[in-house]
Model the fold of this input.
Amino acid sequence: MSPVPPLAQAPPATDDHPLARARRHHRLLMHELVVRAGVAVIILVFAEVETTLGFAVNSIIRVAALGGLLINGPWLLISRTGRGRRVLAYGRMLTDIGLLTFGLYGAGGLAAAPYLGVYTLVSLYSGFMFSSLACVVATTAATLAYLTVVLVQHAGWLPAVAGSHTPDWGVALFNLLLVNTAGALTALLAEAYRRSRRELIVVNQELERAHGRIVENERLRAIGEIASGVAHHLNNLLAVVLGRVQIALRRAEDEGEVTRNLEIAERGVLDAGEVIRRMSVFSRAQAMPEWIPVKLNELAEEVIEMTRPRWQAEAQIRGIEIDVRLEAGEIPPAAGDPSPLREVLMNLIFNSIEALPHGGEIAITTWAEDRAVFCSVVDTGSGMAASVQKRAMEPFFTTKGFASTGLGLSVAYGIIRRHGGELSIDSVEDRGTTVTFRLIAAEPARPADAAPPAGLSEKLRILLIDDDPQVRAVVGELLALNGHTVITAAGGLEGLARLDGDEAIDLVLTDLGMPGMTGWDVARAAKARRPNVGVGIITGWGEEERSRFEEQAVADFVLQKPITRAVLMAAIAQHTSPRA
Done:
């Protein structure tokens, strides 16, 4: 099946396509032909009415009108060749001016000055159908043509033609002034129309690209949800297979060939689990890699130095002064990825710089509370109106026109949310803006896939809750192989009932995705009943569940299926204490 092209790459505007341009030229030509024919017919009808009423109508007027009507045929045939459209357009325009001038000569020359308004028809269609330059050329050509005919006629080089009005140079010059004024206004309006049309094409292209990005993101999100569900079910199956393989390995340590084959199978299951892990984060925008401890104060110092050319050098060129300072608090490392967090701080600083057109201060402050690390970026700039602040984190919303994508704050918000944190804005117009984000404090390094600590000699009483009987059985057997006492439950309510009835339970291990009560619900309820009991979450849904801030506060550790015996034992050893 051929790949689907990304929708975000919008095609060129419709008018830029050669076929579309040809159709547009043909449509404009047909409009022009209709207008020319309509004017000619009106003149002919007017001439017949005048004749019927007993007024004399010079035959030159009829000839000029018939010429304008009949010439449409040749113009249509020539235009079908598709060659020299611009030359033909000017040719038709000058021909129309010639026919109109011939008709005005037949209406009396200088005496026909009251009818000079017919020239504005050529100026109008030249300006709006061709270009502003064509409008200027048409108006100038019409003025020169009329003056030439009148002067030649006045010099006696053309026979005089009687008109229905008295010849008057004052009337003629006044009407020519009106014609030229109308031509100039038409040229200005035509240019404004074309500029608006070009801007509209640009806006449509931006909207198409934005719509494409939204559709693409929605498509990827749907794929991600499907992949996440598939990963959940496959992880449960792999947990059973891996557990059984490791149990067989433990019981067949003296059987060399069996051990070798089981080790190969174990390695294959672990590799499959890694493939599923990558699939479960597929299509998640800028999916977070394995988090590491990030020293936010050092990161802020780096970003201040990286942005120095903007807030110091450029500011000095503009003749203003911007002071950026770091008020670093004593904070633990935050859990995250340095690169996107650096992008967040850079976006916030750039936004603050743009809010300081006359200079000011930017303060970056860090502090810690409970298990969270906070960072705020405060500026003394122009601030935001309440209506702007409400939409500040909407994608593509901007108050800076096309110079901005409107993605800075929305991207920062998305990055912080994917880190399991929160981002908020507090702004007062003309007083400044404060943007604050919160991150999870870094946990100790995840237990490596190594043997459990040798010092763990005391065994625990563990409550295991999982709605999948095969997963429940294999994890329970892994725990029992290491000397732990295991009590099992098939759901959250059953597990909590067993916890209430057994004061000796040291640790609760619960699956995350269960009907009725999720693993987070079980963890909260267990901590509420027994604050000192250890709680571990086992999930097959993917790593995004590990980033949720609120749930991290109630679980001592979170493990991803399929889990190995070594990782499970190391997590229990690290996050729980044996009973006294």
